[in-house]
Amino acid sequence: MLDVVIVGGGPAGLNAALMLGRCRRNVALYDTGTPRNSRSRWVSGFLSRDGVLPHELRRLAREELGSYPSVSLRDGEVVQAAATADGFEVVLREGERVTGRKLILAPGLMNDHPDFPDAERFHGRGVYPCPYCDGWEHRDEPLVAFGQGKAARGMALELSIWSRDIVLLTHGVGEIPDPHRQDLAGRGIRLIEEPIVGLDGDPDGHGLERIRLANGQVLESRALFYAFDECRQSPLMGQLGVDMSDKGAVDTGHCEKTNVPGLFVAGDASRRVKFAIVAAAEGAMAAFAANTELLQEDLARSGRRHG
């Protein structure tokens, strides 16, 4: 039985593996190799790695983990997970079963793309979920906020940090209350309720260039930021019975502990602040807590043998 099984090879899972490797724990990290940010041009706000390519950050991390012989990096998708009398058992898609005394889930979130044409094609190349990650690169350019309701209005107001030329698109869905309309207009934010019919540009080159609307209007913009209240969680969360917050995140406590003993959830799945560097920090905290629990259990077992 392994000391710890880690599911997910992003910043959270990799940093958890690093810290546990330094504690000489036997660890297996399982990853599908399809990160949520695979289409992104860069990783932002990561001290000493600001602007690094996502796959390069992962490559560097995996290379560093090669120095720790007790850490095993394995390709594979974990499709089932359950608590057992001794810890946890996970099942891979190919049928392999692996057991560990502790389990750290760091699968990230399952992103739903906006429901307008070409959104998926330009995702990470002009269509973004996070202005903190991509707003700086498009500062002082015409920016578009997309969404409905309170979240969309909040996104439009947030974008005013990076530009004074902002349009809020609702795609013809939802009602905007008059007080919100007046507030947006007073701040110089244009509100357009026409549906989006397509995006123009080169997703493999310069990215987004234009947004076409149903009434024939064309908006020149290199960046559209969409606002969603929630993202889908990995099915493993439901299988293990973890408590969720009202925003759809896993309700973790001290050092990423969950309501399930021995189970930790780190990274985007556990917090509303979805920064790579925050995910890495949460992975380190989960590793610290898992190692502490393992140590306490080992000491108690040793004490019973010598008692």
Offer a few descriptive terms.
single chain; 307 residues; alpha/beta; FAD/NAD(P)-binding domain; seven-stranded mixed β-sheet; five-stranded parallel β-sheet; 7 helices; 15 strands; 28% helix; 24% strand; elongated
Count of strand segments: 15
CATH superfamily of the largest domain: FAD/NAD(P)-binding domain
CATH topology of the largest domain: FAD/NAD(P)-binding domain
Describe the largest sheet: 7 strands, mixed
Assigned CATH architecture of the largest domain: 3-Layer(bba) Sandwich
Tally of distinct domains = 2
Q: List low-confidence stretches.
A: none
In percent terms, what proportion of residues is strand?
15-25%
- Multimerization status: single chain
Order of helices and strands: EHEHEEEEEHEHEHEEEEEHEH
Q: Sum up the overall morphology in one term.
A: elongated
Name the average pLDDT: 91
Structural class: alpha/beta
Helix content: 25-40%
Individual helix count: 7
Report how far the terminal alpha carbons are from each other: 25 Å
- Please give the radius of gyration in angstroms: 22 Å
CATH class of the largest domain: Alpha Beta
How would you characterize the overall build of this protein?
The chain is an alpha/beta fold and 307 residues long. The protein has 2 domains: 2-111 and 231-306, FAD/NAD(P)-binding domain (3-Layer(bba) Sandwich), CATH 3.50.50; 127-226, FAD/NAD(P)-binding domain. Helix content is 28%, strand content 24%. It has 7 helices and 15 strands. It has helices at 11-22, 54-65, 131-134, 149-159, 178-186, 235-240, 276-306, and strands spanning 2-7, 27-31, 71-75, 78-83, 88-92, 97-105, 127-128, 143-146, 166-169, 190-192, 196-202, 207-213, 218-220, 223-226, 263-265. Strands 1, 2, 3, 4, 5, 6 and 15 form a 7-stranded mixed sheet that branches. Strands 7-14-8-9-10 form a 5-stranded parallel sheet, with helices on one face. It has a 3-stranded antiparallel sheet with strand order 11-12-13, with no helix packed on it. The chain is elongated. The protein starts with a strand and ends with a helix. The mean pLDDT is 91.
